[in-house]
Amino acid sequence: MGIAKTHSWKKLVAQVVLLALPTSVLIYYLLVQANGYYGILQDNSAIQHWYFDAGILLALVFYSFRFRFITTTAVLFVVFYLVYKSTASVSLGEFDAFFTSVNFLVFATLFCVGWLSGYGFSRSRYFSIFWPLLILAEAIAVFSHQSNLAVGEIITWFALILVYAAYIIYTSELIRNINNDQKYFSWFVFKRIGGFALIMLVLMFALSLLFNKDIKAIEKEMATTQNEGGKGNGESMTKQNKDGSLSNKDQTKLTGSLSKDKRLVFVSKLDNFFKDGKTPNPLYYTMYYFTKFDTLTQTFERDPYMPDNDLFSPDPSKIPLYFTKIDTNVIKNTHAPLARKIVNADVYSVLLSGSDFLAPSTSFFCQPIPVPNEYKNQYRSAYRAKMYVSELNSAYFIYNPGGNKMLEAFQKERFDLLRQTKDFSTLDKKFYNYYTFMPRNEDYNKIRDLAAKLSLTAKTPADKMLAIREYFLSKDEFGQPMYKYSDNPGIPGLPSANKLNYFLFDNRKGYCAYFAGATLFLLRAMGIPSRVAVGFLTEDRSSKNPGWYWFYEDQAHAWVQVYFPGYGWIDFDTTIPDLNTREAPQPDQTPPLNMQQAYFVADGTVTDIDTVAKRMKMDVKKIIFHDKNFETNVTQHIETDVSLATVSVDTGAVGLGYVKAGMHVTAASYAEALKNIDTTSTDSVASILKRIPKVIPIDEIKIIEPESKEQQKKKDANAESKPVDWVKILAYTIYGLLLAVFFLFSLPGRIYRFFYSAAKWENDPRKKAFKTYRVTMYYLNQLGYFRTNQGPQQYARSIDAEFATNFEQFSNIYQKLKYSTQPLTSAETSMVVSFFKPFRRKIRSKLPWHTRIVRFYNIYNTIHFFKQPKIQ
Amino acid sequence: MEQQIQIDQALGSIQKLTNNIETIIRGKRTQIQFILTALLAKGHILMEDNPGTGKTVMAKTLAQSVAGTHHDGSANFKRIQFTPDLLPMDLIGSHIFDDVKKEFIFKKGPLFCNILLADEINRASPKVQSALLECMAENQITMGEITYPLERLFFTIATQNPVEMEGTYPLPAAQLDRFFIKIYFGYVDEQTELDIYRNYLGIQNNLQHIQQVLSMDEILFLQDEAEKVFIHDEIVNAVKNIVRDTRKHADIILGASTRSGITFLKCLKAFALVNGRTFVTEDDIQQLTPAVIDHRLVYRNKEAKQKALSGILDKELSRLSKLKING
C-alpha cells in the first residue's frame, strides 16, 4: 500500500490489546443485558459482539494508515445501505427477507459503532471522554427497561463504567504519548479522569436524589420483612414499646398482611349515652390523624402542620396525679358549635403505654388519676379525659342497628341533619384544599372515575359517603360480596404499583387501612374533606356495666373522619366486618369502680423520707385542695404521714422503699379529716397549709419519672421534622441566584468605584500616580482595550491615537516614578493630579454610551484584568 | 543610586548620529535604535532579512557616520563580503616573509578595525564564521604564540539572509549567542517606499557623501554613559524571570543562558539611553526581549517560535504593570 502510516505497528498492537479488547468485553456484557430485553426470539449476543469486534479491529488497522475519515466512512455507510436495501428487495419469501434484513441491520449498526470507536481510539484525542459517556448512556437505556432495577446494580454499573473510563483515558493517552515524553502527562490524565469522575458523581447524586423516595421505600420494605418476616406477620396496627406496652403506630403502611393478637390493651369508662340516658353510645378512641398519604412509600403519615390542628396529645405520665392539662385550642379548631357536648372518659391502661393518650375525638383535657388499690396489679395507670363530642358521632355508624328501633331512629335523624350540608363552600379555602388533596396521575384518576360513578345518584356529601359504604358492602352479579375483609390481602406482583388501586380494582381484599385509605381518596375525589383516624374501635359487649368498654389488641383500627361544617369531624368507618374473627366474644371483666375523692394533692420534690417512721417531707409549689388548684412561687415545706400510702409509678405499684429524696412525686390524701375544711376565694397555698394538720396523712403517692434522654430526643426530632416547602426553597434559590447575578453585574462598577475613590482621595503624589494609573488601566481594560503583549508606552500610544488623550505622557511619568529615583517636577506632579478626569471625559466623548455600558459591565473583562496570564 | 549622566551631551550625540543615518535610511527608526543600543552596550548586532531591504546600506551608513575614512581620531571602518571561499586568514591576517628583515611579519587582516561590516555572514563556511565569532567574544586574536588585542572600540555589524535561502550556512545557536541583538530589517511602509522612489537620486547622492558626525572618543563616551543608566531592582527581577521561564517552557528546547541575562541587562541600559532616559522601564523590556532573547532559543517547532516568548514576556509585563510603587 502506498499510503503513509500515522502510527507504528507497535502502537496498533497496543491499541488492539489495551483498548479494543476491554471495550469488546464490556460491549459483550452490555449486549447480553440488552438481548435479555430486546431479543425477539433468542439471545444473539455471542454473535453480535463479533460484529462490533470486527468493526473496531478493522477500523483500528484501517486508520493506522493515513486514510481520511469522512470519505471512507461515508463509503462504508453507502455500501451498507445499498446491501440493506438489496436484501430487503430480494424476495426469498417475505418472512425470510424480513429476518435477513433485520439481522443485517443489527450487523451494520454494531459494525459501524465498532468502526467509529476504532477510528476514535486510533485518531481522536477527545474520544476517550466521549466514548465512556456513550457507553454510560447505553447502559442507562438498557437498564431503564428492566423492571427489577436494584439500587445496588445501578451503583455497580456506575462504578464499572467509571473504572472503564479511567482505564481508557489513561491508556489511550499513554499510547498516544508512546514516543514523546509529555511533561504534564500525569497531570493531564489526572485532570481527565478527575473531570469524568466529577460528572459521574453529579449524575449519581442527581439519580439518587431523584429516586431517593423509591430507594427509601425499598429499604423500608426490606427492613420490615427482615424484622417481622420471622414471625410471618406483615404489618401490625400497633407497635410494641420497649417496656412491653403497646402504642398505635405513627404511620400505617399498606403491606401484605396484618397481625393481630388478643391481649387486653385498656379498659375505659365512657359517659356517653343516647338521649334516653340509659343506652350507651360507644365512640371510637382516637390516637392520631393521618392527613397525608405518601404516594411513593404507600404510607399514611401524620402531619403536625395540618390546618386547624385539633389533635390533643398530652403525655399523661408527665402530668402530676390529679393535676390537669387542658388545651382549649382544639375546641376552637373544630369549628363545630352545633350538636356538641362534653363527655368524660376514664382510661385504665393494661398494655397501653403510660405516655399514650387515647380518647374519643375531640379531647381537650387530661388528668391522671390513681388506680384504685384493689386493681393495682391489673392496671398500670389511669387518666381521665374530657372530650368535646359531637352528638352525631357514634361507633354504631358502621354496625347495623340490627332492628333496634332507637338506633334506627338515631341513624335517620343524624343523616337527615348531615344531609342539610349541600357543599363545602363556606369552608376556608386552605383548609378545604388541604383535606381534599389527592395526587394527580393515572392511578388516582382511576379512583376519581370510580368516585364519579358512585356519586352519580348521591346529591349531598352525606349521601355520597353512604354510597361509598354501600359500594364496599355490595354484592357482585353472582351474589358474592364485592369486597372481603382479610388480614392477609397479599401484595400486588409488581413493586411500586399503586396498592390502593390493586385493592380497589383487582384484589378487593384488605384490612382496615386499605378500606380507610380507599375511602379517603374516594371521598377526596368527591371533594369531601376527610382524613384517616387511627386508634381503637369500640365494641359494646357488656350489658352488666353500661358505659364500660374493653379494648383488645385486634381492635386497633384505622377509619375515616369526614368534616361537616358546623358539626366538625364525624367518624366514618367503611371497613366491612371481618366474618372470621370479630365473631369471637371477648370475656369482659369487672371494671375498677372504687374511685376515691382526693381532698388534698401536693406536687413537689421529696426532701426527706423516713421509711421506719413512715414520714416524708416535701417541697411543694402546687397543690390541689377540694378540686381547686393553688400555686405559689415560694416553696412550701410540708410533712406527711405515709403509713397508709400506696406508691405507684407509670408501670404499676411499687413499695415505699422506692421513694428517694430528690424525686418528683405527687401525693394525694383521701383523709376524712380534710373533708370538712372549706376553701375561700382568698385562699393561697400558705393559708391552706396553715389550716390543715401539720402532718398530712397521705394515701396515694405517684412518682413522676424524669423523661429519659432517648424519649426527649425523639420528641425533639418529631418537633423538628418540618415539611419541606419546595416553593420556599425555589424562591430562596431564585433570590440567591438573582443576588449572585446582581453581585456579578455590579462587581465591575464596584471595583471601579473603589479604584477611582482610592485615586481621588490620595494626597501623596507617588501613591496618587500609582492609584491613578491603576484606575486608568482598569477603566481601559473594562472598555475592552487590553494591554496584552504591549509595553506601557506602546499601549498608551495606541490609546492616545484612538482618543486623542495624553495617556503616553502620564504613562511615562509613571514609569519614571516607578523605575527611577528621580523626583517629579512640579509640572509632572500637576499632570498626575489632574490626569484622570479629562482623560475619562475624552474617552466618553468618543465612545457611545451604550457601547461603553455593554463593555464596562462585562465581567469577563474584569476577570481578564485580574488574571495573571499563563505561559502555555 | 543613579550615577550622574551627562544626559544632554549624550542625547545630543545620539541625536546627531540618528539624524545622520536617517538622511540615508528612511522609516527605520526602531532598527536604528536597536543598532545604536548594540553599539552602546559594547556588543555586536546581527541583521537578518531578504536581500535589498537596506541592511548593508544601513551598516555602511552607521560605520561612516562614526568613522571618517582617514582622519586622525576617527574610527576605522572595514567591510568584508563573506563568500563560501573566504578563509579565516582573509579576516585575521597572515604572517608573510619580509624580504628585507628576513623574518615573518604579521600582516593584520581587516578584523583590526573599529567597525566591521560582516556582510552576508552566513554565506561563509563555518570555519570562517567561527574565526570571526571568536574575535567578537574575546576581543583579541591569537596567532601562533602572540596575542594581538583588537581595538578598544570593536563593533561588528553582521547581515545575513534568511537561512532558508540557498547557499547559506546557518549560524549555530552558540555562535548566535555572541550577537547581543538580532533584528529583522523588514520592508518599509507604503508611504516611505514611495518617498524613497521619488528621492532615490538624492539618497544615492547622500550615500556618496556621508558625513562623520561622531568621533571615536564620543562613541566610547556614550558606551561609558550607557553603563551608568539606573536599573531598578524589579527590572533585574523581571530579566531573571524571563530568562528562567525560557528554560522551563515546554516548547523551548534550549533556554536562555545566564550570559544572555547579563547581555540583556547591558542592552536594556543602552536602549534606555538611546531613548533619552536615564532609567530602564517596562517598555524597554517589552521592546528588547524579542531582539535580545529570541535568537538564543531553540524551539520545538515553528508554531512555538511565534508564541512561546511572547507568552513569557506578557506574563512578566502583566506582573510589572500591577506592581505598586514603593515609597
**Largest beta sheet of chain B: what is the strand line-up?**
2-5-8-1-9
Helix/strand/pairing class of chain A, anyone? Answer: alpha+beta
Query: Spans of chain A with pLDDT under 50 lasting ≥5 residues?
Result: 224-235, 493-497
Low-confidence stretches of chain B: none
**Quick one: overall form of chain B?**
globular
Mean pLDDT of chain A: 78
* Biggest sheet details of chain A: 8 strands, mixed
By CATH, the architecture of the largest domain in chain B is named 3-Layer(aba) Sandwich
- Portion in helices of chain A: 40-55%
Question: Can you walk through the features of this model?
Answer:
The complex is a heterodimer of chains A (about 850) and B (about 325). Chain A has about 850 residues and is α+β, with helices and mostly antiparallel strands. Chain A contains 25 helices and 27 strands. In chain A, the strands form 7 sheets. Chain A has an 8-stranded mixed sheet with strand order 24-23-27-25-20-21-22-26. In chain A, strands 10-12-13-11-6-17 form a 6-stranded antiparallel sheet. In chain A, a hairpin with a 5-residue loop joins strand 2 (about 240) and strand 3 (about 245-250). In chain A, helix 5 (about 125-145) packs antiparallel against helix 6, helix 12 crosses helix 15 (about 510-525) and helix 19 crosses helix 21. The longest helix of chain A has about 35 residues, at about 725-760. Chain A is extended and about 115 Å long. The two termini of chain A are about 40 Å apart. Chain B is α/β, with parallel strands linked by helices. Chain B has 2 domains: about 1-225, P-loop containing nucleotide triphosphate hydrolases (Rossmann fold, 3-Layer(aba) Sandwich), CATH 3.40.50.300; about 230-320, Orthogonal Bundle (Helicase, Ruva Protein, domain 3), CATH 1.10.8.80. In chain B, strands 2-5-8-1-9 form a 5-stranded parallel sheet. In chain B, strands 3-4 form a two-stranded antiparallel sheet. A two-stranded antiparallel sheet of chain B has the order 6-7. In chain B, about 40% of the residues are buried. The model of chain B has no long low-confidence stretch (mean pLDDT about 85).
